[in-house]
């Protein structure tokens, strides 16, 4: 005789009575049928769902086998609400018992027609901990109201999570990377629909369109969204980032190179420069403002004068408004550093689940475009990297071969490497106390043996950034919860100077991990510690530079442990070129500058991400 799966009175007679929904410690249970498993007891607590097979409850054992036949069933499962993104009623349909597997293969179990509802959640990949995999569970019951009741209860819990987005702007770059931007969005769009997240999608038709939209959008409209998502690469995200920050981030400029060129004392490391001099506000200089500069950058003092009344309505940092990136570019370094994976589904799932991580942003100010041009400050923001010399030359060369797709960077990089061009420049940077101690220790070590030992010591001290990073969560002394300091360093900071011929000058905001550099440019760079990593590659023989690049491409390599490489952790630096000039690469976008200054703002923006798994 065929059994009706919901005629069992076990639950009604043996489980606690249903407790009202508003009780934080409530336990609510029902006897349901799980597709592919069989009859189960589904229990809801204040923070999770838990289900267990009826047979295991009645018999006190795991029904994984019967008379030598293996059941394809998992008897007990727990799913936290923080890992659930959808619950939906789907009406009548077939629900199957557990499948059986014998020597000849799987055998289908018995099926029943009943009302159904689905729960969608996420779980970590077994082979890649940072990759999230969607999971789908279909439950059935003979009573439609029971199914709908479960859907309502789960959705009520999900809706209480204010961190989850409800309404997002989405920009899709159709030609990003391999030209698959639209296809990538089509792949992840159902995830947003299932999570009941509204999306306003714009497929860009020209360069700069996203920047124009974000810079012109009103505060009122912006407040109606929980964030903005870029479907593309690092350069496309940079365009959206600049569209928002250029018009809304208020801060003083970093000092010009000419304002810190008077050494006041010397030590063994070179001239130490005083930054106590008056830093003129650009708005008082009488110079024309660059069209890219959409806002006044008046120097403001005092916590209550950080923003005007209008800007207080939408300013940065802004915990309620987050940025999201769905990777579809050539390198996708920001996504890899913030999620641990270059996976569109993982990024989409972290967005709909409302994950959040703070990210430093560098403000890059060009004072002079060429050595003969007049002073005209122009601002760019960078979330990953700004580089000159080799880095800029590769981007410039690659523009000639866009038809090659991402492979153009390998081809252009090889050509630029063989050219081996160096550039004369002067770089000044803010001294950091911890770095000062490390430099002193390095100078004390002499000889190849002690230098090798020092390199191993430094490597062992690396603390890579990861989810719930303790370094990033530690608040810096120069920030406050209400209004972070307009400058990421003190007026009493001392500056060091380095001048010479460089193959490259780079400033990494994050580690910049990618598929070609598994540890990135700086393995221990953090997402939100308030520091840039300044990397100066001095002119050296071809073979030496090749060794540096090979170490970059190597897992657990040491690309910074060469005598021709300078690495300085700093909150700010200035740059001046001499003679023949290269061009700057700012998050993958070209930026010509003869004189340039940069400073980092700690945790300036929030991303829909959780950080990579350790």
TrEMBL record:
InterPro entries: ATP-NAD_kinase_N, Diacylglycerol_kinase_cat_dom, Lipid_Phosphate_FormReg, NAD/diacylglycerol_kinase_sf. GO terms for molecular function: kinase activity. Residues 253-292 are annotated as: Disordered. Pfam families: DAGK_cat. One of its GO terms (cellular component) is membrane. Residues 163-368 form the DAGKc domain. GO terms for biological process: sphingolipid metabolic process. Keywords: Kinase, Transferase. This is Ceramide kinase isoform X2. It comes from Nicotiana tabacum. The lineage of its organism: Eukaryota, Viridiplantae, Streptophyta, Embryophyta, Tracheophyta. The gene is LOC107791052.
């Amino acid at each position: 005789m065929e059994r009706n799966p919901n005629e069992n009175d076990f639950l009604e007679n043996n489980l606690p009575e249903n407790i009202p929904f508003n009780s934080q410690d409530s336990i609510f249970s029902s006897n349901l049928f799980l597709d592919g498993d069989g009859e189960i007891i589904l229990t809801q607590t204040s923070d999770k769902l838990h289900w267990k097979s009826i047979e295991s409850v009645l018999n006190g054992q795991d029904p994984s086998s019967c008379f030598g036949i293996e059941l394809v069933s998992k008897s007990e499962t727990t799913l936290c609400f923080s890992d659930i993104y959808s619950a939906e009623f789907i009406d009548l349909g077939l629900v199957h018992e557990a499948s059986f597997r014998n020597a000849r293969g799987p055998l289908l179990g018995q099926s029943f027609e009943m009302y159904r509802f689905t729960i969608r959640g996420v779980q970590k990949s077994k082979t890649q901990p940072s990759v999230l995999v969607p999971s789908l569970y279909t439950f059935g019951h003979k009573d439609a109201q029971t199914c709908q009741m479960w859907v309502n209860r789960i959705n009520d819990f999900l809706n209480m999570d204010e961190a989850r987005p409800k309404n997002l702007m989405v920009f899709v770059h159709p030609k990003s990377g391999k030209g698959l931007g639209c296809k990538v969005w089509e792949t992840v769009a159902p995830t947003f629909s299932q999570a009941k997240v509204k999306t306003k999608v714009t497929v860009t038709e020209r360069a700069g369109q996203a920047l124009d939209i974000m810079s012109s959008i009103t505060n009122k409209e912006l407040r109606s969204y929980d964030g903005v998502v870029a479907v593309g690469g690092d350069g496309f995200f940079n365009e959206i980032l600049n569209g928002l920050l250029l018009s809304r981030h208020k801060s003083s400029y970093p000092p010009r190179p000419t304002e810190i060129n008077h050494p006041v004392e010397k030590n063994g490391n070179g001239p130490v420069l005083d930054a106590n001099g008056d830093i003129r506000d650009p708005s008082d200089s009488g110079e024309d403002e660059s069209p890219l500069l959409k806002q006044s950058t008046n120097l403001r003092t005092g916590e209550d004068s950080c923003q005007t009344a209008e800007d207080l309505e939408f300013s940065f940092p802004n915990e309620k408004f987050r940025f999201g990136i769905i990777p579809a570019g050539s390198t996708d370094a920001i996504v890899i550093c913030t999620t641990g994976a270059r996976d569109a589904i993982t990024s989409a799932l972290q967005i709909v689940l409302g994950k959040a991580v703070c990210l430093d942003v560098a403000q890059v100010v060009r004072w002079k475009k060429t050595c003969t041009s007049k002073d005209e400050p122009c601002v760019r923001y960078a979330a990953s990297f700004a580089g000159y010399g080799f880095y800029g030359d590769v981007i410039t060369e690659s523009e000639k071969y866009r038809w090659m797709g991402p492979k153009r960077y390998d081809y252009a990089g090889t050509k630029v490497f063989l050219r081996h061009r160096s550039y004369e420049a002067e770089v000044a940077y803010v001294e950091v106390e911890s770095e000062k101690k490390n430099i002193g220790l390095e100078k004390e070590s002499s000889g190849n043996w002690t230098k090798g030992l020092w390199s191993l010591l430094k490597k062992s001290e690396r603390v890579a950034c990861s989810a719930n990073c303790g370094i990033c969560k530690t608040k810096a002394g120069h920030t406050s919860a209400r209004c972070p300091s307009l400058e990421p360093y003190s007026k009493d900071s001392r500056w060091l100077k380095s001048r010479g011929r460089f193959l490259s000058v780079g400033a990494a905001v994050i580690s910049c991990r990618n598929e070609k550099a598994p540890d990135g440019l700086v393995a221990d760079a953090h997402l939100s510690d308030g520091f840039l990593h300044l990397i100066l590659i001095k002119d050296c023989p071809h073979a030496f530079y090749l060794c540096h690049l090979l170490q970059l491409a190597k897992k657990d390599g040491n690309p910074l442990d060469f005598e021709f490489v300078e690495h300085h952790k700093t909150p700010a630096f200035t740059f001046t070129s001499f003679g023949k000039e290269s061009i700057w690469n700012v998050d993958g976008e070209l930026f010509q500058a003869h004189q340039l200054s940069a400073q980092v703002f700690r945790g300036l923006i929030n991303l829909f991400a959780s950080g990579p798994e350790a």
